[in-house]
Structures
1.
Amino acid sequence: MTRSYTVGIVGATGIAGQQFVIALQGHPWFSIERLAASERSAGRPFGQALLDPKTGARRWWCQEEPAAKVLSIPVENGDAFDPEGLDVVFSATESDVAQVQEPRFAKTTAVVSTASAFRYEADVPLLVPNVNMDHAELIHRQRKNRGWKGFVVPIPNCTVTGLVITLKPLADAFGLRSAIVTAMNGLSGAGRSPGVMGLDILDNIIPFIPKEEEKVQTECRKILPQHPAEISATCTRVNVMEGHTESVFAALGRRASVDEVKHAFRSVRNEARELGLPTAPAEWIKVHDNPFRPQPRLDRDNGGGMTTTVGRVREDNVLPNGMKYLLVSHNTRMGAAAGAVLVAEYLAVKGYLHS
Amino acid sequence: MTRSYTVGIVGATGIAGQQFVIALQGHPWFSIERLAASERSAGRPFGQALLDPKTGARRWWCQEEPAAKVLSIPVENGDAFDPEGLDVVFSATESDVAQVQEPRFAKTTAVVSTASAFRYEADVPLLVPNVNMDHAELIHRQRKNRGWKGFVVPIPNCTVTGLVITLKPLADAFGLRSAIVTAMNGLSGAGRSPGVMGLDILDNIIPFIPKEEEKVQTECRKILPQHPAEISATCTRVNVMEGHTESVFAALGRRASVDEVKHAFRSVRNEARELGLPTAPAEWIKVHDNPFRPQPRLDRDNGGGMTTTVGRVREDNVLPNGMKYLLVSHNTRMGAAAGAVLVAEYLAVKGYLHS
Amino acid sequence: MTRSYTVGIVGATGIAGQQFVIALQGHPWFSIERLAASERSAGRPFGQALLDPKTGARRWWCQEEPAAKVLSIPVENGDAFDPEGLDVVFSATESDVAQVQEPRFAKTTAVVSTASAFRYEADVPLLVPNVNMDHAELIHRQRKNRGWKGFVVPIPNCTVTGLVITLKPLADAFGLRSAIVTAMNGLSGAGRSPGVMGLDILDNIIPFIPKEEEKVQTECRKILPQHPAEISATCTRVNVMEGHTESVFAALGRRASVDEVKHAFRSVRNEARELGLPTAPAEWIKVHDNPFRPQPRLDRDNGGGMTTTVGRVREDNVLPNGMKYLLVSHNTRMGAAAGAVLVAEYLAVKGYLHS
Amino acid sequence: MTRSYTVGIVGATGIAGQQFVIALQGHPWFSIERLAASERSAGRPFGQALLDPKTGARRWWCQEEPAAKVLSIPVENGDAFDPEGLDVVFSATESDVAQVQEPRFAKTTAVVSTASAFRYEADVPLLVPNVNMDHAELIHRQRKNRGWKGFVVPIPNCTVTGLVITLKPLADAFGLRSAIVTAMNGLSGAGRSPGVMGLDILDNIIPFIPKEEEKVQTECRKILPQHPAEISATCTRVNVMEGHTESVFAALGRRASVDEVKHAFRSVRNEARELGLPTAPAEWIKVHDNPFRPQPRLDRDNGGGMTTTVGRVREDNVLPNGMKYLLVSHNTRMGAAAGAVLVAEYLAVKGYLHS
């Protein structure tokens, strides 16, 4: 079966929007038809809207280059953007903008979003592939509640993604009581406005990321509701370009050996791949036995940035049935745009997109 | 009362030995009289022994320069070094060398060491100022057991120092059941043979430091024996020059508020300062209310690198009576040579050094 | 003779202004009496004006802390600031602000500035201690031309400072025809608005600093007019916190040996020190024979950041009478506020400040 | 025409040898048949020889993984290695080893080498594709002189590669009198034994790379003999993983405009591509008009690391007919193994390999 969906990207000139462009251009199912951004960028082709007015240089921050076809799409004003006719809108705006725009888009159209605006609403599922895609059923309630033909589905905060991906197989196999996590997050997670200054992070660690720990604690509970686990997080910023490295201590529901835990990681079901989703990696969780791994620079790109990589699985002697490990997750691939595209692919095969 | 002690440094050409030179030159009580290193360096003045045979450049790795007087001291062969006549030997060799040399030195002389060789012996105290200096009494037993006129007193691993300094006031005020720590350690802790390659740490984190976690767990228990706390550690290496940053989650003996915990830190008794020890900082633990602190680059040099700095004190929702915080400790000042000198100062005023 | 001058700092809350606070608090001659900044900061004590409105954290970017006395000084609005009664105003604003404010201040008061606004005016000397302090005589012409009781004296761009300090003794001893320089500049030179993002500089070099090369080329010629040397510069940004490292190739007026060139550097006259200027370092130019020096991290703080450090002096085989070397200069000490204070000290002893 | 050659890699376990493995596995013409290394590694399959004896971790430093087929090849002792039967030996040993081994291999077999041992011999061409491949004719003289059936062809030092690639079109179009270059070299150029310590390069620049400047100056002249240009180099090490960034000032034979120079770069003949060499990039020299480029992190991988990227082309006011620019060249792709493979491809189509 050949699938074909028309999509728009809102917030397309920002760093998250550009990542959507990269994740979607050349996609076998999704075709970028329209782009929107702030009023300032509207009315010009995407390629021109990207130019720095001072220097004339293209403000483009992804490794891969945007396709010529995308550069020629005229940018529309997001505040006036009418998505009717599109199958999906990918929303990459700041949360306050999303708060206003996304409900308007959802009246007619499916919205998959990296913004946090609707993550905590009771009728909004917070979806992570292979973890809680059954929560997608909430979409029916959401439509009914709100009288929408479309819907809003956000993905979680990028620090949450790798954490729930690794906690889920533990919860399924052994039960999960609680987890303590210290996150060492890459610079790209802070974006560019304002982002992290080179002066501040060189030879340094920033021990605080505003609101991040609350998001981690709240979102994990929402994503793994059947496992009433408490999560306690400390989130720091380190001088790493991409990739969040997390040091996890988990209290399991029953005693398990290191080998059992590694086996649980390695045998996790990769439903996204089974369903033939184009963005799903062959290996959902990669487990290293080499104690010097995972390293963010060496492991963030595993599976095209879609694989979560785990290592240093050891017993913990403090928590009940304690087990500790480190993980690396690519915060701007699986943890952002590409992860949202994977969610959209899932929604497509499950019939949530009208096409 | 004017104090005056003659000291020698063994392993003087290495990075830890050089730090002893810096901590001791210009010291009001201790006078560097003799230096020893490996046979290769022996027989030449210190200044010449430091020269790289290939390039002729001085292999000196501290910010401060060695004094002319020290550069002129002839280096002796550590394997043949007889410390008789010295009041203290500061030992900065690798553990396997210390295993052989330190007992020989201790027959006649007090040895204060950064090596791990004797840390786990039952009659050897592992001393941290203001934390467990009462353990110094073990020295009497050690001398008796071993028939030594001198003794061996090691300081703990540098990741342990800041941890026990901050856990002690919590244990005293509230009791302490357990602690979980993720350490993000600076490069200088790895030394230079082999140390960490620039290629390996740029844009990266190394998730493993061989033997470090076992040391943290064992040494904390030995230093805080009256608080039967389990410690669980994950130790990583980050691209920071100096300073270990530790993310701590502690289970207290009773419920405490954030303000009580901050108060416990701020009101910790600074006995080292009360005793007039020259290397003791005015502030033993500095507590930040600013959530963006502590940062290793901004806080490692507090109190000349002798102050432990704490911040982000918050309640933890996973551990019983849980409290979490971050700390920064200077691993090559308080955590190494200067910390050992502070221990020696304490031993001096308490009469353990013959003078 | 005891000297005593009252000073004000304009642009005091910015990074350059903060460096003036550090360079001036505790100064034996200059006493900080007044502070000014933008209207936004005005009306509150300096300590409060520094607080981030969002987080409440103090926005302070120097290693040293501001003194309590300074923190209590009320911040005035620079646009309404009347310096009458002060002996010197230190101006640390952006160039467009300086363009308007500095002439107003100069009607009554001496202005020493890090801004570029007046650097290229014919009656404005661009002063570097020990290089061209005789240009200070232009102040008389400036006053006459403009009808000012005070004057404006800017210091040059921070990439220029180390370059002219090292070119001057070469020009004096051997003549100077031209110089080619590739500058590898530290992050602090870019400031914070916008400054350099961590994302952009990690594992990278930025090959362009807008307007910097033109400044280098123009300002060098103005500072060294008796040596009609052409300067050609390429200025890059590297991932170094502080310190500009410059690779210089110089065409001398006559053939000289490496030893002669080193001797010229080492025997440079340190008039600033001879005059007893408090901020002058004991060593004006430090020359390394060790080919692995100068390094910015190891050499930028020489002489409290006021010494220019040179190394790798070798013959160049392309330029006529060519000689090549590297230098390190501290861009935010000698190259900015502290350098401006040194100029002010010189002007004081030469009688240019009314006191 | 289908080409097929059997190849061996000597020095295969080192970092340069591993890069040959990556450049050759999956190559359409060359098939890795044999591997050699030091005696210590000999006698075991490659996959086992890579294991760290202490930790059991695989000592593999390339981003791409070695193929299973390669991992199973038994490693031979390079000192006893007889290449008879192979079409090419790729030599990646240290220079002192190459000095002994390469002449022995060349008795029977073509040797393409990254070692410097034979670079300066009169009958040995130092080959750079699209620059001086006509020098390959020297191979006939070499064979005759030395009585070899094979030959030795080294590639130049990695700092030379991008420099001569960009100087050649300038020399051809305008003539070239001389060039001054300041190189800011990536860490991977220093390898791992000893390489650059993280401690030494963080927040720093190392101003000296032993022997590098002499190599640059000598090798450029050998590669571009028809242009009797003097080259003067200063080579530094910066905290960049891969990619050498070079600031070049060139004296041309006649006056040229910036546009003419850009045109010369852009219109350079890409003979390697015309000949269908598999490793040749589509774009030989990429020229940026954006003044913020080239940047090593963004441009080193252009053309799979085989394209040399140039930017900031401007007039220089010091050198006669002066022009200045920056370039980025990938030191471990085009500048090392992949560049050597490209040379071997050229030699293959020109009939220098027996097959």
2.
Amino acid sequence: MPKLIDITELILRDAHQSLMATRMAMEDMIPACADLDQAGFWSVECWGGATFDSCIRFLNEDPWERLRTFRKLMPNTKLQMLLRGQNLLGYRHYEDTVVDRFVEKAAENGMDVFRVFDALNDIRNLRRSIAAVRRTGKHTQGTICYTVSPLHTTGDFVEMAEKLMDLGCDSICIKDMAALLKPQAAHDIVKGIKESCGQDVRVHVHVHATTGVTMVSLMKAIEAGADCVDTAISSLSLGPGHNPTESLVEMLEGTGYTTRVDKAKLVKLKRYFNTIRPRYQEFLSNITGVETEIFDSQIPGGMLSNMESQLKQQKAGDRMEEVLLEVPKVRADAGFPPLVTPSSQIVGTQAVFNVMMGRYKVLTGEFADLMLGYYGETIGPRNPQVIELAAKQTGKSPIRDRPADYLKPEWQELRSTALALKGCNGSDEDVLTSAMFPQVAAKFFLTREQGPKNLGKDPHAAPAPVAAAPAPAVADTGKGPVRTTIIYDIKLNGNTHQVTVSPA
Amino acid sequence: MPKLIDITELILRDAHQSLMATRMAMEDMIPACADLDQAGFWSVECWGGATFDSCIRFLNEDPWERLRTFRKLMPNTKLQMLLRGQNLLGYRHYEDTVVDRFVEKAAENGMDVFRVFDALNDIRNLRRSIAAVRRTGKHTQGTICYTVSPLHTTGDFVEMAEKLMDLGCDSICIKDMAALLKPQAAHDIVKGIKESCGQDVRVHVHVHATTGVTMVSLMKAIEAGADCVDTAISSLSLGPGHNPTESLVEMLEGTGYTTRVDKAKLVKLKRYFNTIRPRYQEFLSNITGVETEIFDSQIPGGMLSNMESQLKQQKAGDRMEEVLLEVPKVRADAGFPPLVTPSSQIVGTQAVFNVMMGRYKVLTGEFADLMLGYYGETIGPRNPQVIELAAKQTGKSPIRDRPADYLKPEWQELRSTALALKGCNGSDEDVLTSAMFPQVAAKFFLTREQGPKNLGKDPHAAPAPVAAAPAPAVADTGKGPVRTTIIYDIKLNGNTHQVTVSPA
């Protein structure tokens, strides 16, 4: 009997986060839910920081309502979320009782599996949220952020797995957000965890496809004993996204492993999302191939594009090369944190600052906090000279304790803030929404009543922007795909003319 | 010491054949040759039927001159070609002395490695060309076309390898043109060949990337003992193309295998071909993701698009579903040939005919020949009723002997035909060009003097055709990529105005 390999389907969260800037509207997910529910996945990942943020920032959707709808439409499948440990879905540490409250509410609204990670792999930042999930009786997945540095060894990752199991996790996830996990490393870490924590400890493997090697890493992880792998329906896979679910299923044919998914459902889902993808053309990642230079630079794709846009804002787009050389230095000074939200942004932005203004002439508040220990401990020692600069610039002292120990109870204050916002419905869920993204939530509460905004567009109505061509204003004549009209604002002899160009 | 795995780089032949309709001009290949030569590849595939055809049909290039240029520019690397056995580079069987002559001339002009295959895996169709290559002292690679059918077993492929080795081949290639080779099958076939033919028999593995599983197949083939794998520089990889060379190299890190390629050269090559790819926008495959439905239909992508265009020409684009159901029936009636040029076209076209005119109401000449044995033997028995129809329709008798045995010496006639063509230079090379593609060669000889025609276009000068947008007339100001100016002919109040739009 071949061993059954479970699959976590990513299409409702990380797939569209990685490939279409997290813009997929609930309206476009709903028609797929029945098939997703019946396809035989171990879980469907459908919630996390970026999707929550995007809901209220761009889509005028209540993320809690989205969760409840998933629950209703997928009664037979475990719903899974990604939780940033003590950061919850935000970018700062929350005080412990807020962590408790958030987890309770997520569970109450329908969440089944909590994948909990910390950007620095600091176990102290995970303790409270893991305990909170355990209290709800839901599945607690402790997460190891995989990274590559001169310091990280297989042994370190295995040791972290042991600590997570000691905290009572139900499973371990190896999370490779930058597609750096090569086959042999995948094999060795999974094998190490199984040998050290027990063969019956569930190991899940999450990889991105960016570098073109991680499908093989999934195979080697499976051979080493991995129980569940993360993939995405092929129509929203590859590039900075994930390996295709259908390929994973086919890959195992004839091996000692198999899956329990329904291939006919996968075909239906693929075809459905093939119709959805072009609706988000303007948000689609323009990377469709592989990128292996990241193995040397260790700079994830998302971080690259962030730094690029920062440089362009400073009209210094030509200094990217210098920034790329600066990143490893900044990362080394910071004690080699994994590069994942928010550490990737913090390190990247500081590298940009160093190039633009001189090395450590100006520290961002976040980078100073990172140096001073306010995000937690790093695997390597941090550069004492930069710590000193950070202390001097901020007037804060370096800390070694768990960062959240320094926070005062804040639920009441968060609650008052939220209740004072126009449109807040007074629920704990609204308070948590406001706590995660204060400014964005304030605006969202004001517009919530207008209902969801689907940013997807009929692909025939919106021509893709052409390289170096002016961005046209588009007027849909409403007469179907071939009748699009483009309106250009064109300057002739100093006067602006609006010119309408219709196809012949 | 890790075992050294060799790489055959495909970018100059199969990569652009699969991804940009074989249109890459020699002019765009030349700047890459020095790096390709020094990158450490076992061989560089650079010649074959489609590239030869494309040279004279579209690019006004002499394919023999292309070969000699490669030889000059890549003195340190083995040049490799794909040869269709008794079909050489054409679509029919050639008489034995023509086969000999072609191979001699290819070797003389610089070819080092001949990968010889037959679409039906009929060893008799390979014997003469293999013997011809052996006489030149060049590397003879006997090829097994991998396919999936109710009849094909691992044992069949291993047995074919044995026969190829008995003919004196220097190595065996498993050629998976449709990306159907799954990891376990790859492993089992390589292992079988090594066990049966000897561990020192070189096994090469050629796969396409279409289904998203074959990078794993390469890994399992390597673990089973494969000596060389085929990949393409990442900027022209994936989709219906191949797995990326850079990813293959990275994938092996830490395993018991390594490569001897120079990673810095790969980066240079990637960046170079990244600048070439957009020049061929209009020819680019629009498939960038994976497609796994082919595992069930077993219809390669190229065959699909062929059938689609045939149906559209018949204004029957809506009958594709019926054709897809018909293909497996036609293939079964034909004794389960692998679906590769030319058998894929022959089976596909007959399936279209069956749907449009009733099953076997009309047979194409090629399908009749296939049924009557004029292409060789198939693994399974062919449907006697259809054989009878074929005999009746064509007046030919079924044969069981080697098809080329029925051919009369034809070199003198081919030579006379060629020499009568205006512009023919009288060389054996020209005779062979004319023998391969008579009509196309005749036209090519007439225009050869005008020199190569590069179909690549400055991507900034030629906006990709946007859905439903008007195609603008374009004027390149020659001041580099960001200065392109677009001139629109626009009708206002009945008068045509030329409006020049420049980027801000």
3.
Amino acid sequence: MNERAEVLFANDAFYAAFDGGDLVAMDRLWARDSRVACIHPGWPALSGREEVMESWRNILMGESAPDIDCHKAEAFLNGESAFVICYEMVGGDLLIATNHFVREGGEWRMTHHHAGPCSLVPESLGEPDPPASIQ
Amino acid sequence: MNERAEVLFANDAFYAAFDGGDLVAMDRLWARDSRVACIHPGWPALSGREEVMESWRNILMGESAPDIDCHKAEAFLNGESAFVICYEMVGGDLLIATNHFVREGGEWRMTHHHAGPCSLVPESLGEPDPPASIQ
């Protein structure tokens, strides 16, 4: 798998963990050797692994854990780090996200997730992305 | 100047160029050796230097170029790349932004800007950040 496919695979794993409410997979995805951050839609920034993972526990374990689809993911590589831009459909709302990754021990791990509203026409999104492994 | 201060200095230069409507400084700030992207508030993603710089020309040269203040900038370092999270006050609206940088030829250059609405209480923002050079 080339580097771009690896990063998209990590991005896909993030949405699979999110959509599936899989807190263990979500925890494994986030970096341990780099300081992490997270900006949920409309929220102020969360900084550091403890705050970020607490937010995921609340979101994924809550009674209204959202279904989420990822569309049109594009990876931007910068050596040992990378970011992915993609669109999210969450309960009928369209969001746009930037997901930042670093390589830790040979694996791409998340250091930052930033999602917020987007005015793109949903029809132009097409179908949800297939798993990165078969792209 | 240490690495963190260098990154915050580059972030500060971005807001100085934005607030001052300085298209030349804005152009100089963006990376040339890495593919860049930009998500203005509510917009779909812009991808590649041409699209991104065209958006800045339209924003900075427009009749209603906004005043902007940066607050509470925090830098997250990952070797030769970094991202900064900060709050923006733009014409009374509060936004939150992630700005990504890479090192090119010894200088920190922008590869991505993602800004969107934020619900943080503006009173807790405090005064705008001073220039990074004197932090």
4.
Amino acid sequence: MAPIRGEATGPPVDARVARTRQDILRATLDVLTSQGLDGLTHPHLAEVAGYSRATLYNHWPNRTALLRDAYTYAGAGKHSTPTGDLRSDLIAELTMFRTEMERHGLDRALAVLAAVTAFTPELAEVRDQLVTDGEQVMRGLLAPVLDGPELDAAVLMLTGAVLNSALLHGQLPSDSVIAAAVDLVLCTLGGPAS
Amino acid sequence: MAPIRGEATGPPVDARVARTRQDILRATLDVLTSQGLDGLTHPHLAEVAGYSRATLYNHWPNRTALLRDAYTYAGAGKHSTPTGDLRSDLIAELTMFRTEMERHGLDRALAVLAAVTAFTPELAEVRDQLVTDGEQVMRGLLAPVLDGPELDAAVLMLTGAVLNSALLHGQLPSDSVIAAAVDLVLCTLGGPAS
């Protein structure tokens, strides 16, 4: 979850305020991926970020507002760059998804996001935007060769295999599981395409 | 998440105590699937279940202990009964998974479980048991026709497609997406097996 988008909402702000907001959003992401929801209180975040509680409440009156900006600031993580070899490109993109989980706590950030949005409909929009961005490369790779429910299923299955492994099996998928998942999906094209 | 296992831990208890524990675990699951982690405090649960806080603390000194017993009590939900037609059986099992999400809030329970176990290693064991039980029928259906990383990938992808849809796309997968997911996996067997 490397910052990729910067400030996404609100009016133009001067450099000092922008820096304050960035410091606090970074601290929010740190706490979110190291302690989860329990650490996400304004008093605790103020302490971690080194700002007053009043500053936090001033910018974000509640946790939902803070989470919305923190996830927008974080973005969906890095993507791979397609080379034109479909099988290698799918494997590279899933491997990048796994790397973002491993290095930047994307797995924990997504687990918290799922648990929060299930009960906070106001966050559905930021979740949907993150998921759209997160799936963009995968969907772009598969759209020329699959369509309709088959395309939707393939995207859900490939990213879902990595998610399922990380979120409910407590381990990231191995290289061989990622390759096997890609080959299962590519079978329908008459064998691995390259 | 219908209760399927009853009490799983602790010494034999008399009927009154067993009933108290059951009432409170049911209330815990209700709160967990309707309000999420924010509602999971001992005072709030005591109020909802109609018992004293002291009773709750007496049985479960902390939230982790309570969650462990609540998830064990809930179990992994109902399964379909295989008929021998692999394609229909896989579709039926994924459809049952979706139904358990729809009717009993299994999607929310799993979102909370993922978010909690990411930061509470003590709960990994109960999560692993639930996932093993939850995957059991699916794995049993696929084990005769796939093995190694291909079997692991297929199980992660099929259940992962439903999970991904529910937890990160905010909607349960349609019948046609479920059927397309099953057909993608069965392709490797030389077309839908029946």
